[in-house]
Design a protein that fits this description.
- With 340 residues, this protein is α/β, with parallel strands linked by helices.
- The protein is 24% helix and 22% strand.
- The protein is built from 10 helices and 13 strands.
- A hairpin with a 7-residue loop joins β6 and β7.
- The chain is globular and about 75 Å long.
- The termini are far apart.
Amino acid sequence: MSRYDEEARYDRPKRRTRPRTKDRPSYDDATTGFVFTRDRGRYACWVEDSHGGHEVTAMKARQLGRTSVIVGDRVKLDGDATGDEGTLARIVEVLPRTTLLRRSADDDDPVERPLVANADQLVIVVAVANPEPRTGLIDRFLVAAYDAGMRPLLCLTKTDLADPDPLLSIYRPLGVESVATHQGGDLSGLREQLDDRTSVLVGHSGVGKSTLVNGLIPGADRAIGVVNLVTGRGRHTSTNTLVLRLPDGGWLIDTPGIRTFGLAHVEPDQLINAFPDLAEIAETCPRGCTHTETAPDCALDEAVAEGRADADRVASFRRLLASREGRDTRQDAVPEQDVT
């Protein structure tokens, strides 16, 4: 080694040898809020106070890494949480979620995408006409609700254009509650179902979600679109997920119109647990039973034959299972390419 190399070696600054601390700051006194919308990396959070509440703009702290923060999350806020103009807080912790509505991009993609946290009711908005109801997508929403541990509610719109009973008859065996509405009609029945709950509105474009929001919440001013007469599809008018306070108590989460809803993350055992009567019977199924019509020695078939299970209810449950695989067992169903 030359003299110059040796001088260079000794002139290098020494590496820091101070060990990194494992202590982490405590946020026990941090302000608690919940996320009601997100826009370009900024989160709008609602913080309750003695005056009812105020909005706080926040960003995700670096220490959260890849931890997702989604609409509905209850979070801890560090920094300036006054909500004054020009202030910015940091989301330093995401509190445990009670429910999680999620989907995958398609049925072949196992990566789940969280949509809304901590909601207790999924309101599936369906037009009985213009556009025609797409039962395959309704089934998928139901599966997502059961998987998330949320109560499903069918909200039928445009009932002045067609009889809702044929559609309702498909879902009666599942015990799904429903409410019927039409433009300009009385919304008191729907309000009763929403009071003191955190509800998520889902449905494909053109079914009237924005009209419902504007009717339920004066001043919401959600944009209203029209249905394309050629394709029968609506135009996306709501482009972001937004939480709105209901006048009589509770929260309403409006989501953009959805045309695809993958369920690759949902397993048959997860779904059947939403039906306690069938889950109890299925405990005697062979290990790994899929509970489908072709599953060998499925205990559901035996229970139907012996009168211990309702045949229509089992058939409806199996229809939901089929929707996970991108197919529908009803002959009158809309083809899957139209559903998605």
